[in-house]
């Protein structure tokens, strides 16, 4: 690729992430995987296509999940919602979901960084979908867990 040798684990798609939109709102993902997002009462709805069969699925990242991801401090082990994992290469939390169409176990892989999740939570607060007390409570729980006081 352009005469440059690849390194295992390196992120060669960082140019797909736009300055303002973040991972889930990049032009590359909109074009390649049909990804679009919208803020709903339940959370951030992500509409995307399966990477294998192209079937469309709507997934809601619920507010408590986004708040928890956003509450992680840099330089500490991430405290993530159940089913989520952390990619050190992309500095993002992600969850892989199966496709009901083709059965592929990772047909839908959703990534978000703590910063992006924080921006989404702010949108939810502004829209009145997120309770500020809930944000504070989850932030305190994550901070305590990161200090080792689970």
3D architecture notes:
- There is one protein chain.
- With 150 residues, this protein is α+β, with helices and mostly antiparallel strands.
- It has one domain (14-146).
- 29% of the residues lie in helices and 21% in strands.
- It has four helices and six strands, in the order H-E-E-E-H-E-E-E-H-H.
- The protein has helices spanning 27-33, 63-70, 114-127, 132-146, and strands at residues 36-39, 43-49, 56-62, 85-87, 92-97, 108-112.
- The strands form two sheets. Strands 1-2-3 form a three-stranded antiparallel β-sheet.
- Helix 2 (63-70) packs across helix 3 and helix 2 (63-70) crosses helix 4.
- The longest helix is centred in the C-terminal third of the chain and has 15 residues, at 132-146.
- The protein starts with 26 loop residues before the first helix and ends with a helix.
């Amino acid at each position: 690729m352009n005469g440059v040798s690849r390194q295992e684990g390196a992120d060669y798609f960082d140019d797909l992430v736009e300055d303002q939109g973040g991972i889930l709102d990049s032009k590359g993902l909109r074009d390649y995987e049909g990804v679009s997002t919208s803020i709903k009462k339940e959370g951030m709805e992500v509409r995307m296509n399966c990477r294998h069969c192209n079937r469309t699925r709507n997934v809601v990242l619920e507010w408590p999940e986004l708040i928890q991801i956003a509450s992680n401090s840099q330089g500490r082990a991430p405290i993530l919602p159940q089913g989520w994992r952390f990619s050190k290469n992309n500095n993002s939390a992600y969850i892989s979901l199966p496709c009901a169409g083709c059965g592929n176990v990772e047909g839908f892989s959703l990534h978000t960084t703590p910063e992006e999740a924080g921006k989404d939570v702010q949108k939810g607060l502004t829209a009145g979908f997120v309770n500020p007390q809930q944000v504070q409570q989850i932030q305190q729980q994550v901070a305590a867990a990161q200090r080792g006081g689970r």
